[in-house]
Amino acid sequence: MGSQTGAALQKQTLLWFIVAVSQCVSVLSCGPHYEYAIEEFCLAKFKLDMQELDQIHWCSWEDTVELYGELTNCTFLVADKMGCYWPNRLVDEFFIRVHKQYFHDCSMSGRLLRDPPNRILGPFIVVPILVTLLMTALVVWRSKRSEGIV
Prior knowledge:
- This protein has helices at about 1-30, 30-50, 60-80, 90-100, 120-145.
- With about 150 residues, it is mainly alpha-helical.
- Helix 2 (about 30-50) runs antiparallel to helix 3.
């Protein structure tokens, strides 16, 4: 019984070894060819799309979400057609380069920072000023009126 368990364990170990080696070979074969393909097909289109978009809108997620989604999908489709795994180290490095080139000045939330409209900002400025003036007038009025009250 012990020899059967040992043989089964050896077969399972051999199977895992073969799977691991095939995974490594598959990933290694995707190196330069996959990187070239995503640069030429995916990044080229993304560059053109981003050039059409005004640079001040690059940090606006609403304006770039579709372009970014197309870029992500393109890297996936190229990996699928080439038999590569996705995501992988090359994809991570690719997107880091894209972020450094196009999104390095953007905030962490991905939203373009700007002042709120005047209809929202106005009350936040006017109300405290009016309350301060009202409280000052109330204190002055109350101090003059309380002279006769015991």
